[in-house]
Structures are given as structure tokens and as C-alpha cells.
Write a structure and sequence with these properties.
- The chain is an alpha+beta fold and 468 residues long.
- The chain is built from 8 helices and 12 strands.
- A 5-stranded antiparallel β-sheet has the order 2-1-5-4-3. The chain has a 5-stranded mixed β-sheet with strand order 7-9-10-12-11, covered by helices on one side. A two-stranded antiparallel ribbon has the order 6-8.
């Protein structure tokens, strides 16, 4: 069954939504961690380098006061008394040979002699000196004391790295709960989001097992999925109406075909029983042809109505003069009305163009006129009036016939429907269904106004061509 094909994809979508949500949630957390990690690292680095700049400024001030010897005394004093001073201090000449050096005990593993291999540069004052054991580095800033001397001050990154390491460890501890939270949130949201889809699947399954009145429950959230449920329910309603219409149509067709088919069979049997009587055989064949024509007309009309209802009726639009077209149609029924003793009048303006299928519109108007004459008693009248109102052509067919009861008005457009007062007249009950189908196919509309015993008025409205 087709509903089984929905089961596996629904689960797959739910899992995909949960995984996508989890991935986005964890990725967002990772990006947030990277942002704060870089921010904290840059902030600490900026603070450390600012301390180095201050120290460089202090040494430069000493140099201006006491010259190179004053700086040497300062470094010697640090070597004697400040073994844990937070800065590495080095003074070098123009050849980058070390003149004075102070290296605290905590940085004894750093090979300060490497600085002699890297010439100081005023444009790139910062040098990173890696330690062989600790994994930390020294940020060394350089500044010129004079044309003959350079001073370098370095600060360790140990404190900064400890904070960042603690931050990384904290993130690794938090990432597992974050993943679980993201996965749980993804599953919850996917189930909540896809609930209308699951309702849709359950509805399709219930239809598959024969529950033809099933509907999709709506969330009333007025979102896209709720709109989908509403549209699906409307589609189901249309399908149910179509099925009921098809069932009723088939019943009516079977009923209406039974009579001509029975007559056709009876005539054929009579012809077979007459032996070699040529006249009786000819009459039988003529009756068979009449009944066959009646059946063919019914089937062709049903096909036309079906094409109109599903929007595939072949409409050959051409610019025609509606007035001239309807005058030709009226001429055909003028004699019919006179034979029945009914007055027939037509009033049309000159040259009323419209883009229509002349054959189809003629057929539609002819059906309405035929009904008007058929249900108007002797002495009555039928009037055809054509006019243009703004951008529309309006065709009115009025009669003084038996009229249509109010409760039957909505049903007259149904195929094979015949009212109580029309059952005594010959017909298939398809005329007005075909008329409505043709008018709808042209983008027009048809209305009826009627009172029992006072007659009926059918109004056909079609798009007209612009004036000029």
C-alpha cells in the first residue's frame, strides 16, 4: 500500500532534523568557545605586552639618566637580588652581541643566546622565544636605546597559558552535556515540528484501510504545516465529493442507459423474429440507430462535462461577434417556439466582439434556450437579451415557464440531475451541467433566478474585448 512508503522516510527525516539541530547547536557552542578563547588570549597578550612596553620605557629612562653604565648597574642589581623578577632583560650592541643579561630562575630553561641570532628590528619589535621543556614562550619586545645599543625585555606566557588551558579543559568537560542537550533538544523539536507530518501519515494510512472520512488534525498554529494540513483536508473533501459525484453519475448513467439499451435489445430481438420481412428489419435498424445516437450523445456530453470540470476542455478562442452568433442560434429556435405557440424575441446591440469558442458558446446558449422553450407552456414567452456592462458581455435568457423550486436551484448544475417537474420531458439531465462547464472554461460565470410558476432567468457573463 502507498501509505507504507511514508513510514521509513518519516523516521529518517526525524533523525536528520535531530542530528542537524545537534550539529548546529554543538558547532555554535564551538564557535562561541573559539571566539571567547581568542578574545581572552588576545586580551592577556595585550596586557603582557603593555607591561613589557612599560618596562622598556623605564629602562630607556635609566639610560637617559645614567647611560649604558646605569643600565648595566640596574641589570647587575637584578641579578644579585631579584632572582624571580618577572622580566628577562638583555642589552645588545649594533652587532647584536649581548652586553648585559638578566634571566630569572623560572626561565633558566630558555636559551637566551638564541636572541643573538635574531637581529632586533624597530618595525617588527616582537620576538617569540620558545622554551625547550615547559612549552611556554617568551614574548620579547625590542627597542633602541641609542645608535649603538638595543634593549630587549621579555615576559613569559605561563600565566596566560594556564588560564587558557583551564578554559579548554572546562570546555571539554562541558561539551559532552552540550552534545546530550543538543541531541535531546533536536529530538524534541523534530518530534514537535514533524507532528503534523505524522498526523498526515496516519490519515493516509487510515484512508488506505478504508476509512474514507479521515481528516488530518490541525494544530491551529497558522504556520506552514498547519496550512498544509488545511489544504490536505480540502483536497480530501474535493476527492470525497468527486468520488460521490462519480458514484452518483455512474448510478445515473447506468439508470439512463438501461432504458435505451433495453429498447435497443428489444428492437433487435423483434427484428430477428420477423424473419425475412425487409420493412420491419429496416424499421428496427432505424430505431437501433436512434437509440445508439442517444447513447453516443449522452457519453459525449458526459466527456465534455468531465473535461470542463477538470479544466482540460478544448476551447478554440477566436474574436467573434456575439450578437451575430446568438442571432444564428435564435433563428434555429424561432420555428420551434412558433410551433409550440410561444413568443420568442431577441435584442442585441450591433458588433459586440468577444474572444470565445463560437461553437461552444452557441451550444451553451442553445441548451438554455431549448430548456426555456421546453418548460414554457403555450402562450408564454422566451426573451434573449445581450448587452455589454463595463468589461463583460452579459447574455440573459428569460422565460415565463414553470420555474424552478428554491431547493432545486443549487442542484440544477449537477450532471444527470432532473427536477421533479422536468421528469415528464425528454432529456438526459446533462444540458445545464454542460452549459456551466463551457462558461467556466471561458472564465465566465452563470447564474439563475427563478420562482415557481413565474419563470426563470439565466444570466451568462463572459469577458469582453476592450473597447476601441
Amino acid at each position: 500500500m502507498f501509505s507504507k512508503r511514508f513510514h521509513r522516510p518519516a523516521k529518517a527525516i526525524s533523525i536528520k532534523v535531530a542530528l542537524w539541530y545537534t550539529g548546529i547547536y554543538v558547532l555554535s557552542s564551538l564557535l562561541l568557545f573559539i571566539f571567547f578563547y581568542c578574545f581572552i588570549s588576545a586580551t592577556f597578550e595585550k596586557a603582557d605586552r603593555e607591561k613589557v612596553r612599560i618596562e622598556l620605557g623605564a629602562i630607556f629612562a635609566l639610560y637617559e639618566i645614567g647611560g649604558i653604565d646605569g643600565v648595566g648597574d640596574f641589570i647587575a642589581q637584578r641579578n644579585r637580588a631579584y632572582k624571580t623578577y618577572p622580566f628577562l632583560i638583555r642589552v645588545a650592541d649594533n652587532a647584536n652581541k649581548t652586553i648585559f643579561l638578566f634571566c630569572p630562575e623560572q626561565w633558566a630553561s630558555f636559551d637566551a643566546s638564541k636572541l643573538e641570532k635574531i637581529s632586533p628590528d624597530a618595525e617588527k619589535p616582537w620576538i617569540r622565544l620558545a622554551g625547550p621543556e615547559t612549552g611556554y614562550v617568551l614574548d620579547v619586545g625590542s627597542a633602541r636605546l641609542s645608535e649603538d645599543h638595543w634593549v630587549q625585555v621579555g615576559a613569559g606566557t605561563e600565566g596566560r597559558e594556564r588560564v587558557l588551558l583551564h578554559f579548554r579543559d572546562s570546555f571539554l568537560i562541558v561539551v559532552v552535556p552540550l552534545f546530550a542537550l543538543g541531541l535531546g533538544g533536536g529530538v524534541f523539536l523534530s518530534r514537535k515540528t514533524l507532528k503534523p507530518i505524522r498526523n498526515l501519515i496516519r490519515t493516509v494510512r487510515s484512508i488506505d484501510i478504508g476509512k474514507t472520512t479521515a481528516k488530518v488534525p490541525r494544530s491551529m498554529a497558522e504556520d506552514e504545516l498547519d496550512e498544509l494540513a488545511e489544504l490536505f483536508n480540502e483536497m480530501l473533501d474535493n476527492i470525497y465529493r468527486l468520488i460521490d459525484g462519480m458514484r452518483n453519475s455512474l448510478d445515473n448513467v447506468a439508470h439512463d442507459l438501461r432504458t435505451p439499451m433495453t429498447r435497443l435489445r428489444n428492437v433487435a430481438e423483434i427484428a430477428l423474429q420477423t424473419g425475412n420481412d425487409a420493412d420491419l428489419s429496416r424499421q428496427a435498424l432505424e430505431k437501433c440507430a436512434e437509440e445508439s445516437e442517444r447513447i453516443l450523445v449522452m457519453l459525449e456530453t458526459l466527456m465534455d462535462i468531465s473535461e470542463a470540470e477538470i479544466g482540460v476542455m478544448n476551447i478554440d478562442r477566436q474574436i467573434v461577434d456575439i450578437s451575430a452568433l446568438l442571432e444564428k442560434v435564435s433563428d434555429l429556435y424561432q420555428f420551434v417556439a412558433e410551433e409550440k405557440g410561444i413568443g420568442f424575441s431577441i435584442r442585441t446591440p450591433e458588433n459586440l466582439p468577444a474572444a470565445v469558442d463560437s461553437t461552444r458558446i452557441g451550444q451553451a446558449v442553445a441548451n438554455v434556450i431549448d430548456n426555456a422553450i421546453k418548460f414554457t407552456p403555450e402562450g408564454g414567452s422566451v426573451a434573449l437579451e445581450v448587452s455589454r456592462i463595463e468589461k463583460e458581455v452579459v447574455i440573459k435568457i428569460r422565460d415565463t415557464g414553470i420555474g424552478i423550486p428554491r431547493e432545486e436551484l443549487p442542484k440544477i448544475w449537477e450532471r444527470l440531475y432532473r427536477g421533479e417537474k422536468s421528469r415528464s420531458e425528454k432529456g438526459l439531465g446533462l444540458g445545464l451541467s454542460l452549459v456551466k462547464g463551457i462558461v467556466d472554461a471561458h472564465g465566465g460565470r452563470i447564474e439563475v433566478f427563478s420562482q415557481p410558476g413565474e419563470g426563470s432567468e439565466f444570466v451568462i457573463t463572459l469577458p469582453a474585448l476592450p473597447k476601441g
